[in-house]
Amino acid sequence: MRKKVTAPGHKRCDHLHNNIWRPKPMSKLIVAGDHVCDNNIVHYLASPAVHHQLPSKTMLRQRPGGATYLKDIIHLAVSDLGDSDWPDANDENLCAKESSAPKVYQVWAPYEKESESKDKVWRIHELLGCEKTSEKAELQLPKHPEGQCILVLDNLGMGGFNNIANLEKFLNAGAKDSPDRIVLKTSSLMVDTSLLSYLIKNHADRLTVVLSVRTLRERGAAISEGLSWDRTIEDTLKEFKHGLSATDLAKCERVVVQFGLEGAASFSRRMLKFQNAENKPKVETREHVSLEHFLYHPREHEGSFRAKRPGTVFGAMSMITASVVRHMLRPEDYPLFGALGRALAAARVSHELGGGKEKDPFNTDTAHEAIKNAFHTAADAKEKPEDTFASAFNHELLKGADCQTFCSDLLQDVTGSGFEYVAAKALEVIYDGAEKALRYAPMACYGDYITADREEIERINSVGNLISQYRKNVKDARPLSLAVFGPPGSGKSFAIKQLAKELFGKDKKPLEFNLSQFGGKLENLHDAFHVVRDASIKGQVPLVFWDEFDSDDLAWLKEFLAPMQDAEFRSGSLTHPFGKAIFVFAGGTKSTFEAFDRSEDKDDKTKNGFKMVKGPDFVSRLRGFVNVKGPNPVEKLNDGEKAGDVPQEELANREPAHLIRRAMLLRSIIERQRPQLIGSDKKALIGSDVVRGFLRVEKFKHGARSLESVISMSNLADAGSFGGASLPNPDLLRLHVTDDFLGHVRQGQLDSLLKEALAEACHEAWRTLKTKQGWKYGAPTSRAKMEHDRLTEYSKLTEQGKDDNRLTAKLTEAKLRNIGYVVNRSTAEGEAGKEVLKFTDEERAELMIIEHDIWLRNHLIKGYAWAETSRDELRLHMDVAPFHNMPDAEKDFDAAIVDTIIPVLKDKGYSLVRA
Fold first, then answer.
1. Whether the Cβ atoms of residue 296 and residue 390 lie closer than 8 Å to each other
2. Domains along the chain?
3. Which of 27, 321, 427, 604 counts the most CB atoms within 10 A of its CB?
């Protein structure tokens, strides 16, 4: 049993702490800032019969907005704390005729609740702007209450903070020994700049700023949008380290950045530092903020939630602000990861419900009850709102982590670093499916096309964004020209078609033309152009695939220059214009765009040849491209290396992510072509020896087609499982795989029975130690009695309890490779005299650190934070610390797991030998 997964309490402390620098308990909240009157014009689509008929179904619904709306949302977020003292900053009726509050106007219209849904809800269709008052705005604040308070400021850029004299007076009136906490929600860093400057200069140590990434982009932050979470994380870290934010926001106590409805980041100047083996941390206050959490939705990217649910609904930042306030009030039962996850869930349900169903009376507060439920889902509920999200994390806790770089690799955060760890995760993908095995890994999902590869994610999302923007831009009359490359059988056309199906709908059929079949005849190309033109002038936006466009020595390139640039083509003496169209050029001879584009080639002959066929002109007209990698390692060369110089095994080690691509392809093919090999428990019935062959073979000669062919050629018609005996004979295999395939099959790898035995041994080692500490079997809520519901035999554990132990058992080969060992079957030739029966003290110590890091990485990505007492339901744990800072009693659990490895291997007929 992995000790850290399940221990709900600890003998040293009964009180919970998420951040030991938290303020004293406080109940006074003050919300002030820009108050506005929202004028919601509800526009029914039914049109009047004649021009003088009144729009009888267009209504005006007013609601106090701005800081007043924020206060309402904070009420929902803190409702579980009972009655709070709310000194009122403004009792004015904001929407009264005589009110001086700015008036904001927006038009609501019915939209599909989500793509292709028959239900419609009210969302904002159009913003009509703001009618500001001529009077000089002045921030309204009550008298400073006795004791400590949280002051929440809502800056909408409406002029409410032009004069901050009242704010200075209020803050100066606070008790010096009990400083206030300040939360600034801001929609603009370009308006009312004196406010942020004043707060940072005088109150940075108690200031939390909440803003959207759009606000950062508006003032020049180079943060990408909707490409990949890895890219977004890297760009955001650079902005806070070297960008404009490093001069102001990075000096705050905390900054929370919203990324649409799919992500949120928190940065803090105060980080836990562990001083000694007693695990007693102290807070290090840094000059600039460091990353705490970066929540992301693994199956979505920034903007994708709203893209499937058109229309606009405001309030997401108010919900994040409200949840942060709730966290500040009592962090011990509302940790930051949970606070941000619940805020995003609340914002998502708010957008989904909008102003209510089209058939129901319009109400801007329709979603309030659902928002409240998102904020306050029970901590012991089986499914919580924050479960949807994963977290990038500060790697300082992990052994050997380089914290000075801005490189993000979220897939590696899930798999672990190195070939063997990726191979172990690939094995999980094959047996359990990508959805379970890669639950926390970012993936691009378009129809049946799924990829976890960062470069593929960025390119396919980039192309998706280009297509969406092109369809919306009526003034862009030129065809949108894109290119897609990949090795034969990589599925490059499939990827774009699935993307198009997602964007255009299932009924949209692309036009496809294979230029290699035109026989070099120009009239065949013109006939194809006419088909495209007929579709485009009918008001459609045809998606056109030009397959093998690079055939015939690139002779076709020059024929596309005019259509791509001027949206027209010449046939005979006539010029024919196109309407809007999307051209997708699929390469047939080059596997990457970089191999196709010779514009900057160092070889003058190659460069000039590309120029002669109008290659640079063609490239200049492309607006995007995708490289689909396929199942083989992508050649990554170091300086001075040439293609073909590096052994294939070394290339595989440089790019271990190809193992995940192979695993996802294999699982997908089995599900589609051999569904009988997927059991009722969703596990694949395939032998570990066969899996090793598929994963570790040097090369599939024809890409994904070869992988698919090996499966289709195997004798699986009546087979209950896919074992080595089902594979085709060696002569047929050589058509599709390199000769090392069968060698890997014969070598085999740790089978599932051995891993289950290792998992059981882990549990029993944990159970023995817990029992010695005085724990006994009982209800998990009986912490005071030192009772635990997993102190029972392995066979009686729930499936989740067993999976917690399997986590480390599945990585046994990878862990042993780390210290220079391989596992062999005891019958292997030459085994006598080589078998290792005991780890050295150094090896044992290294394995203990590895063991801890496996557990730690798995928990950090789920959003866990350090606490003096462990509570898994809140994602708090006392072992979220570097291994060398762990108490000896905790290290004993890692040692116990390490000590089970050799005895179990020997008992099951395996031996451990030096690599």
1. yes
2. 28-393 (3.40.1190), 411-445+651-747 (no CATH), 458-627 (3.40.50.300), 750-914 (1.10.490)
3. 321
